[in-house]
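Lab channel / #folding
Pinned by the channel admin:
"Please post every new chain as: sequence first, then the structure tokens as a reply. Keep commentary short and put observations after the output so the thread stays searchable."

First post following the new format, from NK:
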Amino acid sequence: NNTDKEQAVDIVRKMLDTDAGNVDAATTLCVMLSFAGKNDEAVKVIEPYVKKYPGNRSVIANALAAGNRELNVKALSAYMSADKTLTDDDVNAWAKEQEQLGRFSTAADILLSWLNRNGSITAWPMLLSSLYRAARYSDIGQLHEKYIVKPDMQDKMVYSVSDLLLIAFSFARTGSFAVCKDICDFIVGVDFHDFADNKQRIEVVGVK
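Reply from TO:
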């Protein structure tokens, strides 16, 4: 019940008051406050630890639970700069885990931070899907302008006709109907015979 949860929060808070260096207590309290809907309090608790331990995956992962976009960007940027061993597979798996938990905005933030660090990613479909499901349509439009339409990015990106459709819908959602129409016209003009893979052919036909 609520009383038990509040008592548990108080116990962990006292542990942290007694030992400010107790990282486990800080991350636990952050998660408890987040689950209780007290996200602002959670941010205040965990933010100092994000600054002090930027390379601590546990601190960063639990900071994301607070659901604060500004903190997400700071924490992920610091972590990805600190951990030189990170790979595409590591980042994609982390983002996928968040996506499966329904934390679409957090999944997108993970991938965007990786994109900002590397200049490219291998999980464009997951990034676009996560942004769309988080209703971050303008972010998709910005990605389109910054990366997708740039000629020098074409060989670094892997996306499908379905991804293009998500981009078109995002422009429609933000009132950019002319851009939406241009993308849709392009999709309609795609010849499914251009694809050797049968799955891709079926996808193109389905989208049309």
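NK: The chain has twelve helices and no strands.
TO: also worth noting, The radius of gyration is 21 Å.
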